[in-house]
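Structure (tokenized):
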């Protein structure tokens, strides 16, 4: 009898355990049904589609603080917008969380601008995290590969990359896939006065014209050559020949000049004023006399140059 009682007790125990496990499974299922859905870890403004592709609201995007490109061709943007409206954005735009609810465009600002023109509220993106040097490097490489930068934008980007990373011209060249001479020649353009850099960035000057200007050793003569290029429309070859002539003239003048005594030395403020006239007018200007009374002589070298000066003085077309 004792053995039978023991066996019965064992079966009851086993059955009890099985029932308990079943009850626990049912309780777990109920708990899972009642448990709230896990919240998405995506930042506000980001979303994914059924394929897991990441999207961001275009209203939350702003330019890369290290973006070297400052000018965008409106006609080209409209053409790209028409293509995006028809086909969408094929390559995701690279972005970084700005930390204030918005996102920086690290690569793809042109696509983003066109997408906004096309009326897209969301675009596909790739979310990354870069330091300031890497942001500039990525944006620079993208723009260079697409030939989107003007000469001055490219030069400024190379120079800034050198400053941020403490890099040499050689190291910058390796990073962006250019030879060192290309980088060195680009950076030299930043030695030009601001008015010449502006003309270069607006495609009124070519890189060849800029090299001719850089070859002129005397700053006054450099402004004179700039005035001739703009006023007479000199070709690069003509600009190079004019630069050589001006340099030869400057050497001869320096050789013939007699030392000026301290008593005969010009007032430095008056000499500085003459230089400002030269820079403003882009031609040879001579001031004789002093601040109270004197004579201004302004040279011009063609009818076009004269018309240019007329427009500067009157604000009207000749």
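Design, position by position:
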């Amino acid at each position: 009898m004792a053995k039978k009682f023991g066996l019965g007790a064992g079966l009851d125990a086993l059955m009890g355990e099985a029932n308990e496990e079943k009850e626990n499974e049912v309780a777990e299922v109920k708990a899972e049904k009642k448990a709230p859905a896990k919240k998405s870890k995506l930042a506000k403004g980001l979303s994914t589609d059924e394929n897991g592709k990441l999207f961001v609201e275009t209203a939350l995007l702003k330019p890369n603080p290290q973006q070297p490109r400052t000018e965008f061709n409106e006609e080209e943007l409209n053409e790209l917008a028409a293509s995006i409206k028809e086909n969408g954005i094929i390559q995701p735009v690279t972005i970084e969380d700005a930390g204030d609810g918005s996102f920086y465009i690290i690569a793809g600002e042109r696509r983003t601008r066109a997408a906004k023109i096309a009326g897209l509220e969301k675009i596909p993106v790739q979310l990354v995290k870069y330091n300031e040097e890497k942001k500039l490097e990525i944006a620079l490489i993208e723009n260079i590969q697409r030939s989107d930068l003007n000469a001055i934008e490219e030069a400024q980007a190379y120079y800034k990359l050198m400053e941020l990373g403490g890099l040499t011209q050689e190291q910058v060249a390796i990073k962006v896939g250019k030879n060192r001479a290309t980088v060195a020649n680009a950076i030299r353009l930043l030695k030009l006065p601001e008015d010449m850099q502006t003309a270069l960035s607006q495609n009124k000057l070519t890189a060849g014209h800029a090299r001719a200007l850089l070859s002129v050793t005397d700053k006054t003569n450099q402004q004179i050559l700039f005035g001739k290029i703009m006023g007479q429309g000199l070709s690069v070859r003509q600009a190079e020949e004019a630069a050589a002539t001006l340099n030869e003239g400057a050497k001869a003048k320096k050789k013939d000049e007699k030392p000026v005594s301290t008593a005969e030395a010009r007032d430095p403020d008056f000499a500085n004023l003459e230089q400002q006239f030269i820079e403003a007018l882009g031609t040879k200007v001579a001031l004789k006399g002093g601040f109270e009374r004197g004579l201004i002589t302004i040279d011009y070298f063609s009818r076009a140059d004269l018309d240019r000066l007329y427009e500067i003085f009157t604000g009207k077309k000749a």
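Reviewer-requested clarification: The first strand starts at residue 46 and ends at 48. The chain has a mean pLDDT of 80.
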